[in-house]
Specification:
Pnp Oxidase, Chain A; 36% helix; globular; Nitroreductase family deazaflavin-dependent oxidoreductase; Split_barrel_FMN-bd; oxidoreductase activity; F420H2_quin_Rdtase
Length: 148
């Protein structure tokens, strides 16, 4: 991929994130979107990013399609955060899942949001075998959240 395409893609993603954050903060959730706020592990300041909240078998999960991102690193340290849509803000605690716990969740996540995040999953989709999903599991942190 050329440098120009990479820069344009980065600008597009930044613009998309800003739009999703704005819509979600104003009460428009796009297929489960929320604004995640987590305390920065170095700065101590709250950091915000759009995420897709995955309801699955009576629980709620955050999946990191882009892998070991800053929000993932911050959430590992903080162990808690806030999810917002419109004026509603929920505080939660988080527990990271093991790779063996992820295949069914990754399948559900891809079934719902592959159109948005499929490019980050190395060609794996919701129809993949458990073995294929287990192979990519280390690249995609998943957190079970408990809302207070």
């Amino acid at each position: 991929m050329s440098e120009t395409v990479t820069i344009q893609r980065g600008r597009f993603e930044a613009s998309l994130h800003a739009t999703v954050i704005w819509l979600t903060r104003h009460g428009v959730s796009l297929m489960g979107s929320r604004v995640l706020s987590v305390r920065g592990r170095k700065s101590g300041e709250m950091r915000s990013v759009p995420v897709n909240l995955l309801p699955f078998e009576g629980e709620q999960y955050l999946v990191a399609p882009r892998g070991q991102t800053q929000w993932v690193r911050n959430l590992r340290i903080a162990g808690e955060g806030r999810l917002r849509v419109g004026r509603r803000e929920d505080t939660f605690t988080a527990v990271e899942l093991t790779d063996d716990e992820k295949p069914d969740l990754l399948r559900a996540y891809l079934k719902r949001w592959k159109w948005e995040v499929g490019m980050f999953f190395d060609g794996v989709d919701a129809k993949a075998s458990d073995e294929q999903l287990r192979e990519i599991a280390p690249k995609h942190p998943v957190f079970r959240i408990s809302v207070h």
